[in-house]
Specification:
CATH architecture of the largest domain in chain B: 3-Layer(aba) Sandwich
GO molecular function (chain B): branched-chain 2-oxo acid dehydrogenase activity
Helix content of chain A: 25-40%
Largest interface: A-B, 43 and 46 residues
Helix content of chain B: 40-55%
Domain Dehydrogenase E1 component (chain B): 42-331
Oligomer: heterodimer
Shape of chain B: globular
InterPro entries (chain B): Alpha-ketoacid_DH_E1_comp (IPR050771), DH_E1 (IPR001017), THDP-binding (IPR029061)
Structural class of chain B: alpha/beta
Strand order of the largest sheet of chain A: 3-2-4-5-7-6-12
Order of helices and strands of chain A: EHEHEHEHHEHEHEHEEEHEEHEHEHH
Enzyme class (chain B): oxidoreductase
Family (chain B): Belongs to the BCKDHA family.
Number of strands of chain B: 9
CATH class of the largest domain in chain B: Alpha Beta
Chain lengths: 325, 363
């Protein structure tokens, strides 16, 4: 085990897989010589050369579209898109081809690629640098969507993604890149896709969150613990396909559910999880499910972003609401 | 000092032609096709034409769904594919679902695809033909990525990507062309300029003088070819593929024709197009030109021409019968091949669907 920052854990997973799989290659803007805007791919081009760690033109649809052809040619491309909202120019490729190629070819041509991008806010960035686009991807059949919340999970889930036979949209909370540090196994470490992580066991209230919101949920749980409230915390981590059984277990742990997400509320993953609880576990619920989320407004100027992004106070307030019901 | 604005490329805008030129009368000559090759291309053009003719009838009778017509595009499809090696790949637009026929796929499979049956959705590795691309131009980066991927592995595979004049207005055409140039991917950008994107004429598509001019901006060599001339398309593709295979990077081949038919069924071109113009184009279309050439050279008799046609008709007629005899698709199909493994949610949805059908019958 070694103590690593979240970004360095991702770098380690990429490095190990580039060593292990001669057909793995990275493709993205500024990822080579400069090591990426967040330094996630630092020094990889030095080790593996410019044909395997490729500085691409500024061309999001081109990067993902080229990756489709690379998959057909037997490569395992890993695309880096520079920011969450800069993935929107590539949505046509992701929605119309990447997610459907397996289906369209009756299983003959899979698209084993990983599309990595930083997501979320809290780093005082300009417009279109702080979006949480997970719901768009989760709404698209044929994609696996992952968002880790710890350095160890970042390495383990990314390694699993790099060996998956389905396309994986790998969302990396940029708030965590340098803020989150933790023990990471130095040897091969795989966290299977498709299962939730229990962050903390508890019996009075269940907090369901993912990515950078796990830290917020933990802070809120620590605050209410002072008042004797035992919070169960569930990290969804594979956002699609959802680990429905794992989530329902977490719901049933307390019967009082607060879902915390950065993205806007309407038609979101929080809405999906709330609906799942209502359909499958209504009689285990002891209070209406409450969502704490970003607002149905564009991610704001950073002078007010801390009001938009859920913090421990809003989560504590929601916990009180479900406890009082 | 006044600067000189370059509004067009300096190269000759003349269309490259073989048929009807003095060279053609000397065929067989080494740099185009030999006699048997030329006859084979004609036979393939007939097969494609007959498939198109019959498919239009089947569509009107409700026996197949939407059919994208490529009547008049046969010289482009056949000329390009004949110049490729069997190991080279093609990336079709929605209009080139017939390319697999040239690689040996049955009319049955192609017609089954137009009946919404899974049998028509092919394995790209089996036919070396990428999946059909319904959105416009978004397969251009696929071809570039594939060709580049092959080159990186030391293989000399070439990829040809087919798209229309309208596709050159789409962002992904430009991203793909740019990427292909930067990576020197051995890809042939084959533009079927038939002058129409549904009802939009090419004059409303671009202010560029020629579509081939767009390649210049990317540093990609281009050529304009008479798209009614199968030998010219063949020869341009052969040279382009050789160049790409030798490390020369991408080329752009603009095949100029006129879409004398509708865009697809349903589409009524009388609402936007001059019938006189279309009629003139029909007189100049590719199959007649090749036929006249082969007859003039004594390579094709009436009997031979009739035989090719009847062979093709029989094959397509058998194909539709077989396609219609395929078993009714199982609803389980919906849940297959979405991901490598079915999710629990898919399984429960499928069971629920079955239960409802058992209870209430199929609507």
């Amino acid at each position: 085990m070694t103590l690593l920052a979240f970004a360095d854990a991702i770098n380690l997973a990429l490095r190990e897989e580039l060593h292990r799989n001669p057909r793995a290659m990275l493709l993205g803007q500024d990822i080579g010589r400069s090591g990426g805007v967040f330094r996630v791919t630092a020094d990889l081009q030095q080790t593996f050369g410019a044909d395997r760690v490729v500085d691409a033109p500024i061309s999001e649809a081109g990067i993902v579209g080229m990756a489709v052809g690379l998959c057909l040619s037997g490569w395992r491309p890993v695309c880096e898109l520079q920011f969450d909202a800069f993935s929107y120019p590539a949505l046509n490729q992701i929605f119309t081809h990447v997610s459907r190629y397996r289906w369209r070819t009756r299983g003959a041509a899979a698209m084993p690629m990983v599309i990595r991008m930083p997501c979320g806010g809290g780093v005082k960035a300009p417009e279109l640098h702080s979006d949480s686009p997970e719901a768009y991807y989760c709404h698209t059949p044929g994609l696996v969507v992952v968002m880790p919340s710890t350095p160890a999970d970042a390495k383990g889930l990314l390694t699993a993604a790099l060996r998956a036979q389905d396309p994986v949209v790998f969302l990396e909370p940029k708030k965590l890149y340098r803020h989150a540090r933790g023990e990471v196994p130095e040897t091969e470490h795989i966290v299977p896709l498709g299962s939730v992580r229990t962050v903390r066991e508890g019996s009075d209230v269940t907090l369901i969150a993912w990515g950078a919101m796990i830290d917020v949920a933990v802070q809120a749980a620590d605050v209410v613990r002072e008042e004797g409230v035992s919070a169960h915390i569930c990290d969804v981590r594979t956002l699609s396909p959802l680990d429905r059984a794992g989530i329902l277990d977490a719901v049933r742990a307390s019967g009082r559910v607060v879902i915390v997400q950065e993205s806007p509320r309407s038609c979101s993953l929080a809405s999906e999880i709330a609906a799942l609880a209502a359909e499958e576990a209504l009689y285990d619920l002891r209070a209406p499910v409450v969502r704490v989320s970003g607002y149905d407004a564009p991610y704001p100027y950073y002078s007010v972003e801390h009001y938009h992004r859920p913090d421990w106070a809003r989560v504590v307030d929601a916990i009180k609401q479900v406890l009082a019901a | 000092m006044k600067c000189e604005w370059a509004l067009r490329r300096g190269d000759s805008p003349e269309l490259f032609r073989v048929l009807g030129t003095p060279d053609a009368s000397n065929v067989p000559h080494a740099d185009v096709a030999d006699d048997s090759h030329a006859l084979m291309m004609y036979r393939q053009m007939v097969a494609l034409r007959v498939l198109d003719e019959r498919a239009l009838v089947y569509h009107r009778h409700g026996r197949i769904g939407t059919w994208a017509i490529s009547w008049g595009h046969e010289a482009i499809h056949v000329g390009v594919m004949a110049a490729l090696r069997d190991t080279d790949w093609a990336f079709p637009s929605y209009r080139e679902n017939k390319l697999c026929l040239l690689r040996g796929m049955s009319p049955e499979a192609i017609l089954a695809g137009c009946r919404g049956q899974p049998e028509g959705f092919w394995n790209p590795h089996e036919w070396r033909v990428g999946s059909i691309c319904i959105p416009v131009a978004s397969h251009v980066p696929h071809a570039a990525g594939f060709a580049w991927g092959e080159k990186l592995q030391g293989r000399d595979t070439v990829a040809a990507v087919f798209f229309g004049d309208g596709a050159t207005s789409e962002g992904e055409f430009h991203e793909g062309a740019n990427f292909a140039a930067v990576t020197r991917a051995p890809v042939l950008l084959v533009c079927t300029n038939n002058q129409w994107a549904i009802s939009t004429p090419v004059s409303r598509q671009t202010r560029a003088m020629y579509l081939a001019d767009k390649a210049v901006g990317y540093g990609i060599p281009s050529v304009r070819v008479d798209g009614n001339d199968v030998l010219a398309v063949y020869e341009a593709t052969r040279q382009g593929a050789e160049r790409a295979r030798d490390g020369g990077g991408p080329v752009f081949i603009e095949c100029v024709i006129y879409r004398a038919q509708a865009h697809a069924f349903p589409d009524d071109p009388s609402a936007y197009r001059d019938d006189v113009e279309a009629e003139k184009a029909r007189r100049e279309e590719c199959l007649g030109q090749m036929e006249a050439y082969l007859r003039a050279r004594g390579l094709l008799s009436d009997e031979q021409a009739a035989q090719y046609r009847s062979e093709a008709l029989a094959s397509v007629a058998a194909g539709i019968v077989k396609a219609e005899a395929l078993p009714t698709a199982d609803p389980e199909l919906i849940f297959q091949h979405v991901l490598e493994e079915q999710t629990p949610a898919m399984r429960s949805d499928m069971e629920r669907l079955r239960a409802v059908r058992t209870r209430y019958g199929s609507p």
